[in-house]
Amino acid sequence: MSEITPTEEKKSLNFIEAIVVKDLEEGKDGGRLQTRFPPEPNGYLHIGHAKAICLDFGLAQQYGGICNLRFDDTNPVKEDVEYVDSIQEDIQWLGFDWANVYYASDYFQQLWDFAICLIKDGKAYVDEQSAEEIAKQKGTPTLAGTESPFRNRPIEENLDLFTKMNEGFFEEGSMVLRAKIDMAASNMHFRDPIIYRIIKQAHHRTGNKWNAYPMYDFAHGQCDYFEGVTHSICTLEFVVHRPLYDWFIDQLADSDYRPHQYEFNRLNLTYTMMSKRKLLQLVKENLVNGWDDPRMPTICGFRRRGYTPESIRSFIDKIGYTKYDGVIDVALLEYAVREDLNKRATRASVVLDPVKLVLTNYPEGEAETLSAQNNPEDAGAGSHDVVFSKELFIERDDFMEDAPKKYFRLTPGQEVRLKNAYIIKCTGCKRDADGNVLEVYAEYDPQTKSGMAESNRKVKGTIHWVSTSDAIDVDIRLYDRLFTVENPGDDKDQDFRDFLNPESLIVKTGCKAEPFLKDAKALDHFQFQRIGYFSVDPDSTDGHLIFNRTVTLKDSWSKIKDK
Ligand code: ATP
Ligand code: MG
User: Fold this and answer.
1) Is 257 exposed, middle or buried (0-12, 13-18, 19+ CB in 10 A)?
2) Rounded to two decimals, what is the model's pTM?
3) 95 occurs within a structural domain
4) Is 136 annotated in the active site?
């Protein structure tokens, strides 16, 4: 037997990975590893799905198995090809690929045939009661349920009704097919679960062929079985469904092969809502600008916000997989993206709220070319030229006329360093009639150019700047968390819309940027010195660049909370 070792160094195996390793070592299922990622195409993928994707595809990748993408399209009411396409794009962007694409609807015939077998074996029946009546008879975990008056219908009658259900003879909700198991079982899922219902709506792949559609519990395990899945991994809420999953497979299997279901904790994040239904509501009610709005927790939202696939995978790796639910601080995700962008983002100087700084002792009409490192964290990243001249733009709040003691930026009489350039001393400012600062004045010290021997003079502050001679105008979208509370979706009596952060998007126009940025392409990453990480929005056009703030340089939320 070959030794099974991960292809990359890893800290320790998560519990599902450990099961996979053991199964492979024991040669279970002929030494095969096959997983699947089974999204329902009823919305865009979110960061929670990324956690499942990293495990399903990651395990197959690490241990020489295969992972298929299977669209769980058993409910035509909510599903659409738009979602099918976006799901594929997002999985590939995250860095994974599937061996095959399948659809649960590919198995509608096999599932139907299996349902017919169950009826013939006396293990399924057509129930004509309403959903409410069926629910009332379910009982409680400690109290047995009540048997349906239709439970002992003759097999022939069941076959006839089930066929007619599918042929469109009956209205939605008028009858269902139920497995006949045990109305007194301690596991509520065994109390004659509904396995087929009537839906009279065109399906995005099978059109109007079917009117009877299988329920999730009836479709999922069987699809796993038809495909040859060995490890069917899902989230913890399915633990209680597992015995039913196994029961159906036992009725179906004609060999020793069995797919097995394993469950891990779903991802919950603070300040984030992940229910697809509510995300759809945000989009439909125009509370955000579509599924890929950079404030959305969707994969396409994160992409547009400037997150990298590496940062998302690294975050998933940090949080790990467990058997108990919890909530992860979104600050950890923000940390992961900072950590990644710090290594890859080109540094640039951009002034968000510009005011003019005039260096009164700098020769009129002259300019010099200085050099700025593209990324101090990456020696191979090189450098770019920066023009320095008499008139520069600086941030309005980097100047204060009557400054408190601990203000280390520009105030009359005080020295600061201009990043990558000279030390300057502030001499004053000019204001308009309303008191607004029009220009700030300073003198530069020619002996203090960055890199010069004498340049080591200590000053407490460094500020960024852009020369007025070649600055380009850009727009900036300052994104922040979409919600103001940690658990916006939790309270059933509260409307999550009451918790929307009114400052989750602030648009700045007329920001001044270094000219080399004009060549930036959509989704390129930058660190704007002293401000944060930014990425080029795909709405940008030639001559009109828009940057999205991915994340600030430091976590400002924990400070706010501690106040
Ligand atoms: P919803 O109920 O909002 O429609 P879902 O969980 O049913 O979401 P699916 O499209 O069925 O969404 O999910 C596909 C896979 O992704 C499933 O295996 C599911 O367990 C997993 N998944 C979904 N949400 C999360 C999450 N927050 N954390 C981890 N895995 C998740
Ligand atoms: Mg689902």
Assistant:
1) middle
2) 0.93
3) yes
4) no
* 537 & 518 share domain: yes
Question: Could you tell me the CATH number of the domain that includes residue 116?
Answer: 3.90.800.10
87, 235, 277: which to mutate for ligand 1, most atoms within 8 A of CB? 235
40 catalytic? Reply is yes
Which ligand is located closest to the Cα atom of residue 237?
A: 1
**Ligand 2: centre distance to CA 358 (Å):** 61
Same domain, 430 and 498: no
Reported as a single tens digit per residue, the pLDDT across 146-182 is 999 999 999 999 999 999 999 999 999 999 999 999 9
Please give the tally of structural domains in the chain. Answer: 4
Q: What CATH number is given to the structural domain containing 384?
A: 2.40.240.10
Are residues 284 and 318 both part of a single domain?
A: yes
Is residue 2 in a domain? no
- DSSP letters, 66-127, are EEEEEE----TTT--HHHHHHHHHHHHHTT---S-EEEGGGGHHHHHHHHHHHHHTT-EEEE
Residues with Cβ–ion distance below 5 A, ligand 2:
40
225-244 pLDDT per residue, tens: 999 999 999 999 999 999 99
- Are 339 and 392 within one domain? no
Q: Which residues pair with 479 in a beta bridge?
A: 505
Question: Does residue 39's CB lie within 6 angstroms of at least one atom of ligand 1?
Answer: yes
Is 78 an active-site residue? Answer: no
Whole-number Å distance between alpha carbons of 206 and 106? 9
**458 and 356 share a domain?**
yes
**Residue 38 marked in a binding site:** no
**Amino acid identity of 444?**
Y
Strand partners, 140: 143
Are 387 and 430 in a shared domain? yes
> In terms of domains, do 223 and 320 share one?
no
pLDDT, one tens digit per residue, over 269-291 is 999 999 999 999 999 999 999 99
pLDDT of residue 556: 74
46 touches ligand 1 (CB under 6 Å):
no
Tell whether residue 65 is among the known ligand binding residues.
Answer: no
Q: Which domain holds residue 505?
A: 269-346+474-555
